[in-house]
UniProtKB/TrEMBL annotation:
Superkingdom of origin: Bacteria
Domain Phosphodiester glycosidase as annotated: residue spans: 174-356
One Pfam family recorded for the sequence: NAGPA
Record protein name field: Exopolysaccharide biosynthesis protein
Stored InterPro entries: NAGPA
Swiss-Prot/TrEMBL keywords: Membrane, Transmembrane, Transmembrane helix
TM spans (from-to): 12-32
Species in which this protein is naturally found: Paenibacillus rigui
């Protein structure tokens, strides 16, 4: 075989598969599905339509959002204005509500003949201290306007029955702003302990039970709704009806419903004059404590109970009671001893009234 024949045969063998494929395609009836250009065009139109709809919805959402924002801003402006109006109304209401108190305080100052020398005002309590310079005695008036249940409390000496401490020590121990001595006491010579006299209550409970009134003693305290209560009680249920929160006992009752009560003869002369501590309440339930100075307990200095009755009536006090006096009279304000204790120093007592900011 010559080279030309060899090359021709090789080319024939190489092209044989392609020739067979061409023959197969020519002899068979295969069909090729071409794309439906009309449907494709319709689909593309639908997509464009949906895109346009979405764009329209987005534009509408933007418009709605802008309107919502404008509405919110408008409501916020109205809220700010309303808040300002409410603040103004509250301030006006506060001023209106304070006006009667201001008028009342001015009247008290006028009747006492002086403005308050010291005062403390908080959300809890309003205290005003006045100095008294009467023709027959000198003393002090503490007006108390309680604004909450925690404004005033009575405490036992060193927080235990039989314990005693000065009013100043009690004020310091409790962090009070002011303090006044409370009820009478009885000493136990054997133990050296000092016990509250007769019926005594703390936190709505009797310290050692109820004791019916004897020898003109009177219970003096505050009810659970911060009203001064007191008087003579022969039955516990009669006192319980007044819902006492705390209180102590001493003698005598000075005023009831603005009327003077008879002073027992013993207390008219024994002693005639003395350092005194009395508590009273006005018609608006504010309290008034009067504390008078005296050199001793022999009856030659201080005030008589009749003089204090006259003063209380002149000030418009409704109910009033005598608390322990003599060397027990104690008045503390802002950590200072205001009165002049007749013992030369403060006496240790089993009960004290405390006031808190």
């Amino acid at each position: 075989m010559n080279p030309v024949q060899f090359i021709n045969r090789t080319l024939l063998l190489a092209s044989a598969p392609f020739i067979g494929m061409i023959l197969f395609l020519l002899c068979s009836h295969l069909t090729v599905q071409l794309p439906d250009f009309h449907r494709l065009a319709a689909t593309q139109f639908t997509i464009q339509k949906e895109l346009q709809h979405a764009a329209d919805q987005l534009d509408k959402a933007k418009t709605d959002a802008a309107q919502t924002r404008a509405t919110i801003e408008r409501f916020y402006q109205l809220y700010e204005q309303s808040a300002k109006d409410v603040v103004t109304m509250v301030q006006t209401a506060d001023a209106a509500s304070d006006k009667p108190t201001t008028i009342f305080d001015n009247r008290i100052s006028t009747k006492l003949g002086a403005k308050a020398s010291r005062q403390t005002n908080s959300a809890n309590i309003d205290l005003k201290l006045y100095y008294l310079a009467e023709s027959n005695y000198k003393g002090y008036a503490l007006k108390v306007n309680m604004k909450s249940d925690s404004a005033m409390k009575m405490v036992l000496g060193k927080d235990k029955v039989g314990g005693s401490e000065t009013t100043l020590d009690a004020v310091r121990r409790y962090g009070a702003v002011a303090g006044v001595n409370a009820g009478g006491f009885a000493d136990d010579d054997r133990s050296g302990k000092r016990y509250p006299l007769s019926t005594t209550m703390l936190n709505g409970k009797y310290v050692y039970g109820f004791e019916p009134t004897f020898e003109d003693l009177a219970f003096i305290g505050l009810s659970s709704d911060r009203k001064l209560i007191g008087g003579k009680f022969s039955r516990q249920e009669d006192l319980d009806k007044l819902k006492p929160s705390f209180g102590a006992t001493f003698v005598p009752v000075l005023l009831q419903n603005g009327k003077k009560q008879a002073i027992p003869s013993q207390w008219q002369t024994s002693p005639a004059r003395a350092p005194r501590t009395v508590i009273g309440s006005f018609k608006n339930d504010q309290l008034l404590f009067l504390v008078t100075d005296g050199y001793d307990e022999r009856g030659n200095s201080g005030a008589t109970l009749a003089e204090l009755q006259d003063k209380l009536v002149a000030l418009g006090v409704k109910d009033a009671y005598n608390l322990d006096g003599g060397g027990s009279s104690s008045l503390i304000f802002d950590g200072q001893i205001i009165n002049r204790p007749s013992d030369g120093k403060l006496r240790s007592l089993p009960t004290n009234f405390l006031f808190f900011k």
